[in-house]
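pipeline: protein-struct stage 2 | run 1193 | CpaF family protein
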Amino acid sequence: MIHLTFQECSPGFEGSREYLSIKAKAHEYLLSRVEDVGMEFSQWGEQRVKNFVDSEVDRFVQQQRVPINSHEAQHIAQELFKEINGLGPLDDLMGDQSVEDILINGHRQVFVSRNGVMQSQVLHFADDAHLLRIIQRVIAPLGRRLDESTPMVDARLPGGGRLNAVIAPLALDGPLVSIRKFRKDPYGMADLVRLGSLSEDMAQLLEHAVRNRCNVLISGGTSSGKTSMLNALASYVPATERVVTIEDTAELSLKHPHVARMESRPSGLDGHGEINTRDLMRNSLRMRPDRIIVGEVRGAEVMEMLQAMNTGHDGSMATVHASSPRECLYRLEMLAGFAGFAGSELSLRRQIASALNFIVQIGRLPNGKRRVVSITEVSGVNDNVIALQELFKHDYTEQADGELVEHWTGAGLLPQTPKLAKLRQEMANKNSSQSHGGWLL
């Protein structure tokens, strides 16, 4: 067995050509020993695999007279254990709770996102083939395929998270890998308020909206925090209600006792067997849902979602990629057109306006922080245009030292939806007793 001594890794050893060469040869030796063990190896526990790797690397170093000290040998054994039992160089990043995204551009270039800020990362993949082996190991148990005929894959990671990979001939400089990690313990609304994502007044309005079965769309850009907000909002759904979730790749982690989760399925090798989110939306209506939550609206499923919101499934929620509440509505109209909506533009806008109650717009600031930048109510159709009223708005100013001074302003408007009639009356009474208007929940 390898034992740690007073010696340490030689300066620059990790990542050097010598290190990569020794590691590659030790890996080949280790794989041959795994083949000798046979099928029994797959049934071993983690500690037994670790002991096996340590002893075999020790034997390899002695047999081949490899000129490295015991600490360097132990370091190689640890890395090979990750190769055999985990995700190789990605293991430490996957275990780092501060890492939100891992972005790989070929085997030489790795970036991570922490708190919304991108940082370069020093990782050591031997070559593109090494990186591709790790991707294949991730997707193999999921039944997904990645080769020249199917050079793109989107998959849900067993430990929580999402992987997207693109390889040649589409990726020109080596495999492109994007890994989105999800918290094991998702943020609640109190956490988001504490982190400054929104104000206490805004959180209370959203709580009332969800509990009173308002239909809510969460709009924002990539990695702006839409899924985190959706998880937090879902915690306000009463425990007596049945929630059905529909996603392309499962990301939601709802704190609710009765959740029926569904995920779309790509076509098989023969091009058949695809089940898309529109199919799942249609089927969900037969599953006795109290509320339907769509992870992301980006296709023909928009029509079924609007119909569900208009026909008794109040309190449903979804996310959509858009840069503002108005752009969010334009995107819904565009998706409905792609879905083959045959009615007039006015009838579509009336259907959207009657289905939606609130749009929660989320954005990412220059410093990487995620904020709810507005809460907007959909109040009807006026002059063939969907009418919106902004109830809260986020503003910030940048100081000379680059620091941002943030604040939210309430418009002093009361929500018009009949679903919040009781809240509207309570707020009107409170506001009339104060010397200033605005939100006083």
